[in-house]
Automatic annotation (TrEMBL):
PANTHER family: DISULFIDE-BOND OXIDOREDUCTASE YFCG, GLUTATHIONE S-TRANSFERASE-RELATED. InterPro entries: Glutathione-S-Trfase_C-like, Glutathione-S-Trfase_C_sf, Glutathione_S-Trfase, Glutathione_S-Trfase_N, Thioredoxin-like_sf. Residues 1-86 form the GST N-terminal domain. Residues 88-225 form the GST C-terminal domain. PROSITE patterns: GST_CTER, GST_NTER. It comes from Ancylobacter mangrovi. This is Glutathione S-transferase N-terminal domain-containing protein. It comes from the Bacteria.
């Protein structure tokens, strides 16, 4: 059984989609990051970095209970555990390359683009421009790679496509104010729409739906999500 520590945000959504695609048994454990539950000692014992998603596999290697954190690590772990959505063995170097591109580039720059457009003070013009343009540059890299391709890696749907879907689902926030945020990237838009039409996506979107996650963006939420902003000695 997989215990899946979840909040309805892009990185946990990737894991939810993998679990729904493969039918692997799992139990959802809600972590309300707006209330600061990710900082609780019990959760930090699972992910010392205090972020979702994380999983605990009660039937890990050798029958040992195993923790895994970070969405890319979880996707790789579960794909290897099940033998599903890994693509052809010959494509493994390409798969790892694009997974790292998504994990270290498209995902973080998308997240910071959202942060500086929606959460940061209005005077953060440089940061808003920096992160939005870098997110768009990553969109273009992936769009160019997808020319003439149905999938990011090889000839089949893999965890690379799942990983991209998680953040592309928030393109309207990454590219705030754009009527068709993926319109300038037609290959990327086609990939997103192809993945988003899969039946497992509808099920993944329902994960955690029965839990009343906090939606109010008050001072408690800001301190929970951005604790470094409240450091007693801010950088000048």
């Amino acid at each position: 059984m997989i215990r899946f520590y979840f909040h309805p945000t892009p990185n946990p959504a990737k894991v939810a989609l993998f679990l729904e695609e493969t039918g692997l048994p799992y139990e959802v454990v809600p972590v309300d990051t707006s209330k600061g539950e990710q900082h609780a000692p019990a959760f930090r014992a699972i992910n010392p970095n205090g972020k979702v998603p994380a999983i605990v596999d009660t039937e890990g290697p050798g029958g040992k209970e195993t923790r895994v954190f970070d969405s890319t690590a979880i996707l790789l772990y579960l794909a290897e555990k099940t033998g599903k959505l890994l693509g052809a063995p010959a494509d493994r170097p390409e798969l790892l390359s694009w997974l790292m591109f998504l994990a270290s580039g498209l995902g973080p720059f998308s997240g910071q683009s959202v942060h500086f457009q929606f959460a940061a003070p209005e005077d953060a013009v440089y940061a808003r421009n920096r992160y939005r343009r870098e997110a768009e540059r990553h969109y273009q890299v992936l769009n160019d790679h997808l020319e003439g391709r149905d999938h990011i890696v090889g000839d089949s749907y893999t965890i690379a496509d799942i990983s991209a879907w998680g953040w592309l689902d928030r393109a309207s926030r990454v590219r705030k104010g754009e009527e068709d945020p993926l319109g300038p990237y037609p290959n990327l838009k086609r990939l997103f729409e192809t993945v988003d039409a899969r039946p497992a996506v509808a099920r993944a979107r329902q994960v955690g739906a029965g839990h009343d996650f906090k939606k109010v963006n008050d001072e408690e939420t800001k301190r929970a999500l951005f604790p470094s902003n409240y450091h007693p000695s801010p950088v000048a």
